[in-house]
Amino acid sequence: MSTNAQLATIFNEMAAVLELIGANPFRVNAHARVARVLKDLTVDVATLADEPKQLEAIEGIGKASAKKIAEFVATGAVAEHERLVGEVPGGLLALLEIPGLGPKTVKMLWDDGGVTDLASLKDAIARGALADLPRMGDKTIRNITESIAFAEQSGDRARLGIAMPLAESIVERLRAVPGAGRVQYTGSLRRGRETIGDIDILATAREPEKLAESFTTMPGVAKVLAAGRTKCSVRLEAGIQVDLRLVDEEAWGAALLYFSGSKEHNVALRERAGKRGARLNEYGLFPDDGDDAPPQQRGIAPIASRTEKEIYAALDLPWIPPELREDRGELTAQIPKLIELADIRADLHAHTVASDGKMTIDELAAAARDRGYHTVAVTDHSQASAVAGGLTVEDLLRHVDAVHEANERIDGITILAGSEVDILADGHLDYDDEVLARLDIVVASPHVALGQDPAKATRRLLTAIRHPLVHVIGHPTGRMVNRREGLHPDIEALVTAAAEHGTALEINANDMRLDLRDVHVRAAVEAGALISINTDAHTPGQLELMPYGVLTGRRGWLTADGCINAWPAKRLHAWLAENR
Ligand code: DGT
Ligand code: CA
Ligand code: CA
Ligand code: ZN
Predict the structure, then answer these.
(1) pTM here?
(2) Rounded average pLDDT over 36-57
(3) Percent of the chain at pLDDT exceeding 90
(4) Which ligand gives the minimal distance to the CA of 158?
(5) CA separation for the pair 315, 317 (Å, rounded)
(6) Tell me, what's the pLDDT at 1?
(7) What span, in angstroms and rounded, lies between the C-alpha atoms of 137 and 126?
């Protein structure tokens, strides 16, 4: 972790403790603010710490905070932080990590319910003790119970966007080791799942020991869990486990297939092999001679083992893209040509400094043009999203003019003037129709009332889908990976209506969202609804999140034809104009 990130955690913890012990709200906020500033800061504070004046010059950092930062840089700790953390039971801070449990509730649970950690909270719920506490209705208790269950089942899995860059840099390092052969990540990461239990890497090498050595000694390793001839495991400081398996070149395809999974796909493949008088394992596809002992140990030559393609072919199957290997019908269905990152030619949901983005229209346009896109849409927030700097009608219309002016001025890309308009709790949109009609593109998204019941959520989203001026429904469920479940609408009803009304449903490519999720995309594709994959970028760098959306699309059996971002400019622009 960088010094800035470590300090941000420290200030956040101080803010949390101060709130739990009922300190002055101004003090609480000041600490939380410093944490936010540190997180966003692009310079390393350690380089400024010698000169307190430089620290204090940073907006949001006062004299007292500057002193604590200098103290941390000099000593590696902040005495005040340690004193504060000592004032509350350690388990209480962990409770704040549970979605829906804010400091006020946790303080009350502690003061009045004797709750000091997750175990005592679960115990209090089980005993029915929470019902006696103030502001604890049945519904609140049910929400807390669900949040705990959700946090527990998602707790240990890393987001795709965290695991992927780590895996890519490890693969790159291993490929550079002299004598390294093939190196590839496998497992759930290769299948593009939204969360990753651990990172699996498969490799061949002339001298496997050298690769193993490079792996266990790489930067970022917190602990070596195993270091053998064929398998090494480490735990990274980031908290993620990484397994490296070293295999023989002859068995590469069989090992790649086996360790890419999913387990369910492997089981289905083994059954299919069995029916054809063959045995499949991580060393190859072998003739089944009735002997239970592993064929590879008895000198039996495999039918196929070197590539995945040969093995699938020997089982009368086409090569199946890893994203489909979930035992969801991929062995019997006709497999379409799935969409690829290179097919994407447009990003239709992004924010500029006009609302809560950190880039100008020009910066957004340049970043999109650099990616080779023919179109990018400026979709800042609407007026109801006040905290996200939502635009009033007058501001929006001025912004539209500015976008159109930029579109005239900047060559090589079409810049669309749009809005990410809030779908209010009852399904109404946050701007009137005559305002929406002046936009090139309308992305309508739910941001509030994300806990509403499924029937209401369905009605709300259906209203937006049927709205004649809406092109795309942004992040349709509002879920946040590992943090918030979001809406639970009737997906069948939504995708059917989306297909009927020609409204596209978004895959929000930000790995915190990935909303729609894979199975929802599959339902949309089967219903004939269009999909739009967008990054919802707030900075130029976030345009790079597109691959995660594409992976999710592929997991939903999406083709380029079914995704409006992959259409040629003419087709996309004509489609947008049709809804006007
Ligand atoms: P994860 O790590 O929980 O996100 O999911 P995976 O799919 O990466 O699973 P992991 O890391 O436990 O194992 C990697 C692959 O190895 C898995 O996708 C399939 C294969 N594999 C692991 N255990 C078994 C097993 O018991 N049977 C079969 N057929 N394959 C297995
Ligand atoms: Ca794994
Ligand atoms: Ca593993
Ligand atoms: Zn957005």
Answers:
(1) 0.79
(2) 84
(3) 76
(4) 1
(5) 6
(6) 66
(7) 15
The CATH superfamily of 92-154 is 5' to 3' exonuclease, C-terminal subdomain (1.10.150.20)
Calculate mean pLDDT across residues 276-283.
97
Q: Which CATH number fits domain 3-85: 1.10.150.110, 1.10.150.120, 3.40.1190.20, 2.60.40.10?
A: 1.10.150.110
- On whether the CB atoms of residues 28 and 107 are closer than 8 A, the answer is no
Q: What is the pLDDT of residues 445-485, one digit of tens each?
A: 999 999 999 999 999 999 999 999 999 999 999 999 988 89
- Mind giving me the DSSP string for 365-405? HHHHHHTT-SEEEEEEEBTT-GGGTPBPHHHHHHHHHHHHH
Ligand 1 centre distance from Cα of residue 186 (Å): 9
Ligand 2 geometric centre to CA of 543 (Å)? 27
Model confidence at 237, pLDDT cuts 50, 70, 90, reads confident
* Residue with CA nearest ligand 1 atom 21: 263
User: Are 205 and 246 in contact, with CB atoms under 8 Å apart?
Assistant: yes
Instruction: Output 565 or 36, whichever has higher pLDDT.
Output: 565
Q: Which CATH number fits domain 158-246: 3.30.450.40, 3.30.460.10, 3.40.50.1000, 3.40.50.10350?
A: 3.30.460.10
Distance CA 50, CA 318 (A): 63
Q: Percent of the chain having pLDDT more than 70? A: 99
Atom in ligand 1 nearest the alpha carbon of residue 198: 2
CA-nearest residue for atom 28, ligand 1, is 263
- Write out residues with Cβ below 6 Å of ligand 1: 187-188, 193, 196-198, 200, 258-259, 261-263, 266-267
Length of the chain: 580
Per-residue model confidence (pLDDT) at position 354:
97
Contact 549, 376 (CB under 8 A): no
The stretch 529-544 carries a mean pLDDT of: 98
Whether the predicted pLDDT of 153 surpasses 70:
no
- Measured CA to CA, the distance from residue 536 to residue 380 in angstroms comes to 10
Alpha-carbon 100 to chain mean position: 20
Task: Scan for tokens 């001679």, then name that residue.
Answer: 289
- Residues 477, 473: Cα–Cα separation, whole Å: 10
* Helix (H) or strand (E) segment spanning residue 244: strand 241-246
